What does this fold into?
Amino acid sequence: MEYEVVIGLEVHCELATNSKIFCACSAKYGAEANEHVCPACCGMPGMLPIVNKRVVDLGMTAGMMLNCHINRKTTFDKKNYYYPDLPAAYQTTQLFAPICVNGRVDIETSKGKKSVRIKQIHMEEDAGKLVHDDWRDLTMVDYNRTSVPLVEIVSQPDLSSAEEVVAYLERLRSLLRFAKVSDCRWEQGSMRCDVNLSVREKGSDKLGVRTEMKNMNSLAAITRAIEYETARHIDAIVNKTEELVQETRRWDDEKGKSFAMRTKETAGDYRYFPDPNVMPVVIDDTWYNRIKDSLPEFPEVKKARYMDELGLGDFDATSLVESRAFCDVFEAAYAECGLAKDAANWILKDCANLLNRNQMTADMLSIDGRALGKLIRLVADEKVGRANAKFILAEIFAGATDPEKIAVEKGFIVSNDTSLIEKVVVDIVAADPKSVADYKGGKEKAFMALFGKCMRELKGNCNPQVLRELLLKEIDKA
Amino acid sequence: MEDLLDMLEKVNQLSLTDEEKAVAAGYFAATEKDFATFSAVDTDGVEPMVHVMPLENVLREDVSSQPFTREDLQKGAPEAEDGYWEVPRLIE
It folds into this structure.
């Protein structure tokens, strides 16, 4: 008998907003415990939630990126459960009229292309964070994350391997980051995934017993968990090693095992009901079209355009579209200098180096793309040497916007005064007869040593071709 | 009715005496009867009411502010230390 695994995912993404979903507290990650709290997000009695408009914008954007139908009238509901990470004892979420329904994400794996159906996307508030103190035998509660806005993206059970799950999550992440819906950082918990999994006889239309693994936050762990859980289900069915029950399980990545947490609550246990404190949100045509018009080009469309229209190679185009920030800087720089390949090189090599050195990720590149374009033009026109241009780039990276002004102030403008270059060349050749003799004896490296000395003396401000010609002439004379 | 009360007792983390359960059962029986009356009404073609208030789009702009300090909020807390609220230990 052959078996197949059936997987559906619930993916939570924190939205890229300044403030929380129902109050004005900061939604920024990384503050001291309980610095971003107020009576509303602490669940004090009598506090009324007011919906953050930007959350609705981003919810719609997510839906449009994932080919969903947008519900023009969307409402919020209370989901009741008692746990200290939820101070109001209910989560405000969406059950009856979520903002987006019936979408689709297209993925590609070694087995080919596939469409994964999206059941719905709903907006909701995140819960707080609990820190268990073993020493004092108590639990410490931090409400900074409480009410941070989330979208939960619920797929249909259309996935049938860990490889498909990874392809789906990577695609989702790419689309949401591209549309600036979320930074989707697994390591900071701004993207988390619940895996619902069951196993059935291959070809059967009846689903097996489903288990859920919650709050998975790395692709490698998700892959290992799916492989383990699939094997456990098949073993239970074939060898009767245990009785499978519908439950929530915890994945322990170090031990490489899943453990039962608690019997899964049924929807009835949460006693959902419409939240009387949050008014319905109605999206008119103007609002809908504003969001639709703001959608970015999809990454693959951008990549094709970079290759077909701007002449970039596959590697450069692929690397650029991995980050929306790279694309934004690239397009602004290209518009300024008209040199696509040079712009790609400066971003993928020099800017990437600066990001690395500052422990920043590609999405954190926020330099003025037009300034980079101007710098590239200065180098292309041989007005600034490449070494000095790197120095100017560091200034642009720190916020500068006028590379020509920096070049003038720092004395980086290449001199067209050949008499100055000639003087330096004469002096250097006269002072280093050994290198001259070595070069004449066939050592190419000796020429580079002399060239480097001249360039240093000229502080990089000369046309390398002119220097090369004058230096060869002087060596000939020596 | 007994199952419903058991479930509500569990999810609300309550512990009811037999007398309290009997009182609650009386309330729920009356409520069930009311709902049975509602359910008998023909609502075909009636748009569901999503909210009792005739308001929509009560929204705010995405601007953050922090008018309260954690010290303000933790004044009434039975236990708080190092900026955290403290609660009895939870075990999954």
Q: What stands out?
A: The mean pLDDT of chain A is 92. The radius of gyration of chain A is 30 Å.
